[in-house]
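Re: the 261-residue chain
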Amino acid sequence: MPSPVFAPASREFEASLADVEENLRFVESAAWLRPRIGELLNWNGLTQETRIRCQSFMDQKDVQLDLIYRGMFVLIAGAFEQLIRRCLRDAVAQISTTSPRYVELDAELVRQNVMRTGKALATIFDPPAHFDLNYGQLCGNIGTCVETSESVSLNADAFALFFSTLTPTKLAEVLRRIGVTLDWNIIGRHSSVRAALDMKKTNETATAAQRYLKTFINNRNKLAHTGSGGISVSPTDLETSIKFFRGFVDALTEAMHSQLF
């Protein structure tokens, strides 16, 4: 059952995947049309500008579609990273909406809140470009995180800072910030993950999901840091990635919700 807490993050992620799919279809259509467009046009009926544009399109014989596909691959990775950031933030925000008493909070969550608020405040002279932090609010909220507090406001944004390259090991570490244990067998039992990987057994699916995520992130790192790294990306690779992450995110958010709420 979809998680209401993580639904906004999931919708945002799905929108990103849909954008990649739409652009992939366009690129594939353009690649098919380019060598054929000349025979389909009535050149005498075209304006000069249209004729120039069409000729320019036909002349793009050396375009490397793989470069475009690599960019889409990195976009999927970025969307997944943003999804995890938002899930962390929304989970902590949901806990904080109840204005819990200090003594009602999990002790590890309290320690994480103090430590991560400190790290967030340490960026005041060099704020992260990808995150809009309100330093006054961070200070105000952390002041409520004391043993005598009857109403604690957690700094949800602070939990979403300082991570990247979400390999299976790193993903598990990040989720532990909010008290979630990543059980890959739960992921492996989910029908959407089994369908994405075309598998039926829980253990095999769990292992395959970890392997796929690790390979995907490693390839993303090579592309992002070298421009290529010998990695070739095809439309099939992109379609497979989209299918995998749709299933994986469904399973992951449901597992997170069941542990937290």
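Residues 7-100+156-260 form one domain.
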